[in-house]
Write a structure and sequence with these properties.
By secondary structure, this protein is mainly alpha-helical. It has 5 helices and 2 strands. The longest helix has 54 residues.
């Protein structure tokens, strides 16, 4: 429904432009997927998140190794260890697995929340850059992607990337 509405809006704008004086209307497009891939803020955001969650990731790796060590010990010494020791190690392993899965789930949820926060911040910066370029160059209409065809001369993606700081 939203796509239909945006297509109708664009068609209406083009019809309006043809009726008023098409030569006066300056239109541009922005390839948002290209900006998200090439903007320097994207890689900065990824590094920031990696650094932020590195200690928790290392903790998960430590827990996983601990579980593996207990299971290896169980497999290796199962025949020689007492029933009580075997049950204790199995219980320890099961508790560590539960703890590992809980921490893994919490980490995944926190990473997703932070990614969404970073993406929202990046989208705000992109919108400001698009607005700045559009106003500076006198564009009447700028469309984000979703266009079946657009001539390269109306594509302002590189100008927006430059505004975001891409070298």
């Amino acid at each position: 429904m939203s796509k239909l509405l945006s297509n109708l809006l664009i068609t209406g704008l083009f019809a309006f432009a043809v009726n008023t004086n098409a030569a006066e209307l300056k239109i541009g497009i922005v390839q948002i997927d290209k900006i998200l891939q090439e903007a320097p803020q994207t890689s900065e955001s990824g590094k920031k998140l990696e650094k932020e969650f590195s200690p928790r990731t290392q903790e998960l790796e430590r827990l996983q190794k601990q579980i593996k060590d207990i299971e290896t010990s169980l497999d290796k010494d199962a025949l020689t260890m007492s029933e009580v020791d075997r049950k204790n190690k199995e219980r320890d392993s099961a508790n560590l697995k539960i703890d590992f899965q809980r921490k893994q789930r919490e980490l995944r949820e926190d990473v997703n929340l932070r990614k969404n926060e970073e993406l929202g911040s990046l989208q705000d910066r992109i919108n400001k850059a698009v607005t700045a370029v559009s106003e500076a160059e006198g564009y009447d209409l700028v469309v984000y992607g979703g266009v079946a065809y657009a001539n390269k001369k109306i594509d302002i993606t590189e100008k927006v990337l430059k505004s975001l700081g891409k070298k």
